[in-house]
Amino acid sequence: MLSTIQLPHTASLPPEEIEQLLNTSIIRGITEQEALGRLRQFGPNVTGSKKRATELAELLSHFKNPLVLILLAAAGISAGMGETVNAVIIFVIILLSISLDYMQERGARNAAATLGKTLGSKITVTRGGESYDIATSQLCPGDLISLRAGNIIPADVRLIAAHDLFVNQSSLTGESFPVEKNAATIPVTANNDTFLENMCYMGSGVISGTGKAIVLYTGRKTMIGTIADELNSGQEETDFGRGMRQFGLLITRVTLILVVFIFVVNAISHHSIFQSFLFAVAIAVGLTPELLPMVMSVAMSRGAMRMAREGAIVKRIAAIPNFGSMDVLCTDKTGTLTTNQISLVKCVNATGEVSADVFKLAYLNSSLQTGTINPLDQAVMAAGTPDIASFEKTDEIPFDFNRKRMSVVVKHSDTFTMICKGAPEEILKVCNVDTDTTKQIQLLYEQLSQDGLRVLAIASKSLQSGKNLLESDECDLSFAGLAVFFDPPRDDAATMIAELEKIGVDVKIITGDHYLVTEKICREIGLPVKGILQGFEMDQMTDVVLQEKVRNISIFTRFSPDQKNRVIHALKTHHRAVGYLGDGINDAPSLKAADIGISVAGASDVAKDAADIILTDKQLSILYDGIIAGRETFANTMKYILMGLSSNFGNMFSVAVAAVFLPFLPMLPVQILLNNFLYDTAQITIPADNNDADMLYHPQQWNMAVIRNFMLIFGLLSSVFDLIIFFLLYHAFPVSQAQFRTGWFMESLATQILVVFIIRTRKLPFVQSKPAMPLVISTLLCLTVGWILPYLPFAALMGFKPLPSHIMLYICAIVIVYLICAEITKRLLYSYHSKKQAAAV
Ligand SMILES: Nc1ncnc2c1ncn2[C@@H]1O[C@H](COP(=O)(O)OP(=O)(O)OP(=O)(O)O)[C@@H](O)[C@H]1O
Ligand SMILES: [Mg+2]
Q1: What is the distance between the alpha carbons of residues 208 and 389, in angstroms, rounded to a whole number?
Q2: Is residue 371 within 6 Å of ligand 1 at its C-beta?
Q3: In terms of domains, do 480 and 351 share one?
Q4: Would residue 492 show up in a list of annotated catalytic residues for this protein?
Q5: Is 456 in the pocket of ligand 1 (CB under 6 A)?
Q6: Is the CB of 717 under 6 A from ligand 1?
Q7: Do 420 and 463 lie in a common domain?
Q8: Which atom in ligand 1 lies closest to the alpha carbon of residue 584?
Q9: Which residues have a Cβ under 8 Å from the Cβ of 57 and sit 6 or more positions away?
Q10: Greatest CA separation found in the chain?
Q11: Residue 5 confidence (pLDDT) above 60
């Protein structure tokens, strides 16, 4: 049986001793049988969320809310003081609302879990001498794995072979520059015992090269597994997140002030301290938007499920609202806007004549390179089969996105030749050509690019020896020719651009390719070219200048990964949420930096890992659906917030006034709790509500000013009607205390619940905007229950007493007039804000 191992220790051991230590073979790996046993012993290779909490723990976690705890304590004290009925009612209400909340959230959680299962990257493992791909979760210590560019390192591993292996371990070290790894044994001392050169760590991305490695640690035993929880917190705040935070602050402040005020006034003026306290707590419960987390997670998981049906996997459900506020989408070109079905059109020499020699050089380079599987290389290899049996590869300098070229070194009848291929401007930099020829080549290159053809240049030189070559050896090459490729735009790219434009999302292209090729593609897919910025031009700009510039630029060409990243950050200063769509290793930093990273199924693991959403279906139209789903989440969450702020707060203002002027409590604490419970339950269907088209066809924006005004004006409005009721029941037709409370209970419940039909839309309720059926049903049901309660045989236990019918008529009239006034107020408020916004633009 395998015992635990120390990472630094294995770094200093030669491969044979590692074989022994881990009871494996660096050629054949462990057997499938052995792997199964080890998998049982060490558990699956997953980090992140610890074990999923049990359902009971999830249920109990809802009791952690301080208000719930205070209420429970209050119920206990009530029971101790002999007020059993009170205690039971409070207890039942707590239980009911917690179970409702829990059940809704469980639905959302399960949906999220099902979605998560469909993901998972694969890795090539060698077991019992055979190599095949398995899910990375199935790896165990001792496994022999093969690494290549684009892979995510699936565990903490010790390298036993490496060829030009460059790894980005920024997820661990924060250092974004790729580091070279090798398999050599190194002595371990106290000051070099982390991030060793012959180790690769889970979560790092392979940028270039290949390697073989033995798995040492898996799952939570890995370096990243032990710190996984801290890593998740690194997300930057978005418009939606910021809005939610400000909203939370606002509500906490107002609640605190109101509750303390009500408690103090009640306690001083006339009631027992305990009653006043209970009353204040009930008010606090009424004010807290306790359903908000549920409303959000249900709305988001509905969005995610909907996208899953359309063929997109949502990795991070919390990103859905960002989709809704996204107002600019950056995309790379190859594979997202083009088909990625690249074909080689021809190979030409410097004068533009078709040349078999140039093709042979290109073929040698493409077929012998061992980096990422790359569509350009595949196209070269698919274009013919020259005989290269007599050539032997002796070295390779892998591709990287800064050099934009790569080289292989071949041996052929005792001579060594370096063959280099890459972006023409980069190849020309390292070639020995006179100015005239350079001009001639550039002209040819531009002509081809203008026709939308992609061009790589090929160059070569003879060498003395064929080993241990460096990037600096790519010099003094002689120019051979150009390889010309065709990569047609996707059929649906034009539709996508048009659709996105219609719903207010700006599209920008950030590519590593030449600007002429990009311009041609833009023309074909109907993307207007507003401005072009080239990578080297941006390097001369300060951040401030860049931030000003990016607004009017629609294509960014010849951009390296870091440069792409810089553009994303600059765009973030102007836009609410920046989206990035990309598939390559070079897109990973931008996918992370963007508010919402989108990748496609065929993308490299590194890109998929960094993305929030992965489009599995090839259709780009899913993007459109995703944005709409995001906006629905946003809109429905906002409805709940506006509801809570307007009607709820109004009631609490009224209570504050009543505390000063009434000689008794306007409602009993249990009645307030009951009222709040019915009101909350009525809203449980908000996440499933319909939305007006005009809310969905613009990027959503969190507008704190609207929220604040809603609270003040709607709160005041509903308070005015409460005061009318108070006047009616206390002064005009004086009734008993129990009847007063019953009257206000019924009026406030009706106004609070029914106003949802007004708040949910900017238009005329029902006539211009139809609510979803579930919302209508839950609303009417809760209202009916609330209005029947006072007439039930046990109503007296809850302190209710029915009112005479003429007073009931007054109450109904007041509710109707209130709703009409609310509709008018809503219109005034929105027209005020749109005028203000129009003035600001
Ligand atoms: N296999 C390769 N061999 C040589 N050069 C390459 C290879 N792949 C890419 N290049 C060069 O590097 C440049 C940038 O790479 P690439 O086009 O993949 O970047 P990108 O930013 O992902 O662009 P895109 O928007 O086209 O996906 C290419 O335009 C090409 O000149
Ligand atoms: Mg790309």
Answers
A1: 26
A2: no
A3: yes
A4: no
A5: yes
A6: no
A7: yes
A8: 22
A9: none
A10: 113
A11: no
Number of independent structural domains in the chain: 3
Find where tokens 């109707």 sit: 816
512 lines ligand 1 (CB under 6 A): yes
State the pLDDT confidence band at 50, using cuts at 50, 70 and 90: very low
Least confident segment among 106-115, 336-345, 541-550, 601-610: 106-115
- Ligand 2 midpoint to CA 440 (Å): 28
Q: Whose CA is nearest to atom 16 of ligand 1?
A: 512
Question: Is the CB of 406 within 6 Å of ligand 1?
Answer: yes
Å from CA of 690 to ligand 1 middle: 44
CATH number at residue 583: 3.40.50.1000
Report helix, strand or coil for 261.
helix
Q: Which residues contact 40 (CB under 8 A, 6 or more apart)?
A: none
Residue 51 has pLDDT above 90, yes or no: no
**CATH number of 460's domain:** 3.40.1110.10
Cβ neighbors of 423 (< 8 A, separation 6 or more) are 404, 405, 456, 457, 512, 514, 558
pLDDT, residue 585, reads 80
User: Which ligand is nearest to the Cα of residue 562, counting in written order?
Assistant: 1
Residue 464 lies in a domain: yes
The answer on 475 and 433 residing in a single domain is: yes
Amino acid identity of residue 584, one-letter, is G
Ligand 2 centre to CA of 143 (Å) is: 32
Asked if residue 538 and residue 433 are part of one domain, the reply reads no
Task: Tell the residue nearest (CA) to atom 15 of ligand 1.
Answer: 512
The model's pTM is 0.80
- Which ligand 1 atom is nearest residue 372's CA? 1
| Gap between the Cα atoms of 355 and 579, Å rounded | 43
Q: What is the pLDDT at residue 806? A: 94
Report CA(748)–ligand 1 centroid distance (Å): 65
Atom of ligand 1 nearest to the CA of 455: 31
Residue 479 and residue 501 in one domain: no
Question: Burial, 466: exposed, middle or buried (Cβ in 10 Å; 0-12, 13-18, 19+)?
Answer: middle
Q: What is the pLDDT of residues 783-798, one digit of tens each?
A: 999 999 999 998 998 8
Same domain, 500 and 602: yes
Ligand 1 lined by 123 (C-beta under 6 Å): no
- Which long-range CB contacts under 8 A does 602-606 form with residues at least 24 apart? 602/335, 602/340, 603/335, 604/149, 604/150, 604/372, 605/121, 605/150, 605/151, 605/152, 605/205, 606/150, 606/151, 606/152, 606/168, 606/205, 606/206
378 and 418 in a single domain? The answer is yes
Final residue belonging to a domain, choices 434, 456, 485: 485
Alpha helices in 479-620 (DSSP H): 493-502, 515-525, 535-538, 543-550, 561-572, 588-593, 605-610
586 lines ligand 1 (CB under 6 A): yes
- Give the residue from 626, 651, 672 where a domain finishes: 626
Q: Which two three-digit tokens encode residue 246?
A: 């400000």
- Distance from C-alpha of 228 to C-alpha of 784, rounded to nearest angstrom: 50
Confirm whether 726 is domain-assigned.
no
* Nearest ligand for residue 567 CA: 1
Q: Which ligand is nearest to the CA of 337?
A: 1
User: Per the residue annotation, which of 164, 332, 513, 605 is the catalytic one?
Assistant: 332
Ligand 1 atom nearest to CA at 374: 1
User: How far is 504 from 767, CA to CA, in rounded Å?
Assistant: 27
Instruction: Of 651, 712, 708, 714, give the one whose Cα is nearest residue 678.
Output: 651
Tell me how far the alpha carbon of residue 463 lies from the centroid of ligand 1, in angstroms. 27
The whole-angstrom distance between residue 732's C-alpha and the CA centroid of its chain comes to 57
- What residue numbers bound the domain in which 190 lies? 10-47+120-232
Query: Hey, which of 365, 454, 513 would you mutate to test ligand 1's pocket, going by the most ligand atoms within 8 Å of its Cβ?
Result: 513
333 lines ligand 1 (CB under 6 A): yes
On whether both 359 and 447 belong to a single domain, the answer is: yes
